[in-house]
Amino acid sequence: MMKKQKNILLLCAEEARHTGTVDLHIRAFKDYSDYNVVTLDSNIVSRINVDIDMFDVIVFHYSIVISLPQYISDELGRKISAFTGPKILFIQDEFRWVNRTMKAAEELGVSVVFTVVNKDVIRKIYRNDYFDNVRFEQTLTGFVPENLLDHPVPDYMERPLDIGYRARKLPAWCGSFSLQKWLIGEKTLVDAKKYDLQCDIAMSEASRIYGDDWISFMSSCRATLGTESGASFVDYTGLVHQEIDKYEAAHPNASFEEVRDIYLEGRDGEVVIHVISPRVFEAAALRVLMILYPGTYSGALEAGRHFVELQPDHSNMDEVVAILRDPNEAGAIIQRAYDEVACSTRWTFRTFIKHFDDVVCEELLKHTSDGGAKSGNIAKMIIERTAELEAAQMAEFKRLEVANQAGAQRAQKRMQFILLLQRSRVAAFEFVDKKLPNVFSVPLLLFARAVSRRVKPILRKILQ
């Protein structure tokens, strides 16, 4: 299909693409949009000469944080603010740095927000008057990875693991709702001993798996666990999470209840964000049985039909294990999830980008009718572009993408190094915590965490 002659600048963070779901999301714009999408790392754009008036639309991918100068430099921010075409923001983790994000969106002139939060809480988060005139479109954190639909997987009974699961123990400033992600793992580990289940379940940073290794891991599991993604505390100022991070570093064994009572101001649960996780679509595509806590899962899943519902108190674990051990019953649920979720056009990246393209088309038309055609970049929408101009632009886009690729390789190597440092740090902390007596481990860990907090910003600057 011939691309429509409108050009979109997609600003992203190349270093974030080591996570498969992020990479697939970024690639989808280039693969499926009817527009000409030029994907550039925002850091690289800040360092090389880019005429953003060549573009008709600017899109901020969720892999960048628009309020942080390491993603949007002051100079780039000024260029974007002066740009008069549509500016579209994709954002996740919308419960963090809310005031700062709203201010940045207003200064940059964001006109459309693709949000993952539930419709009923959007304006409880984006509560500034500026957003009265911003268009909100609901989207998901991820979609079906179609490359996995034909991925070879062992037969159900030939898989060595009954249950495999990875999760990150989130900090207390995410609120009580986020506890489910690691509580389901902890409780299932206890259940595993009772039911003699073969499990590989871990919630530490050092245990995280990426890329092809993750797909291989999932393919070795008959079942996986899951909960809805989200949070139940909104940190408008950004100060709460800073204070909690300091407290948890100094008191690593502090309970959630202890931290909540000190810092969450009685607001835990006032706003609850609950959305489907991209891991659900991966599991459905890889024919892995999903054992999930109750939830709406963005309307994509039905309990008993597409997944086995596990009560949060695990009171129905007998029934769950019975299904897990019955290849016929488990197989029927797996097949329905594969046919009705993974293979449904409703949850594909192609459908997502069709939604995006429709919004872009409407916004371009609106900018034209609102008088935007008087400005330089919008005028190009209604002036017939000569073949010479198109060729010159395509050559420039190619130059930018080549420069971006070189920078992307450096960014990915930098991220690999950072991940290695993080895993080494976490592994060292866990070793000290488990192997040394408390009289030695507690002061040593406190000292190490204090040093880590001071070293992190220095390393960040060095590795930029």
Describe the structure.
This protein is an alpha/beta fold and 464 residues long. The chain has 2 domains: 4-142 and 348-412, Rossmann fold (3-Layer(aba) Sandwich), CATH 3.40.50; 146-346, Rossmann fold (3-Layer(aba) Sandwich). The protein contains 16 helices and 13 strands. Mean pLDDT is 87; it is low at 458-463.
Write a concise keyword list for the protein shown above.
alpha/beta; 464 residues; 6-stranded parallel sheet; 5-stranded parallel sheet
Number of strands: 13
Q: Look up the CATH topology of the largest domain.
A: Rossmann fold
Spatial strand arrangement across the major sheet = 2-1-3-4-5-6
Helix proportion: 40-55%
Compute the average pLDDT. Answer: 87
Instruction: Choose one word for the global shape.
Output: globular
Order of helices and strands: EHEHEHEHEHEEHEHEEHHEHEEHHHHHH
Contiguous runs where pLDDT drops below 50 for at least 5 residues: 458-463
Q: How many distinct helices?
A: 16
Estimate what percentage of residues fall within beta strands: 5-15%
Gap from first CA to last CA: 39 Å
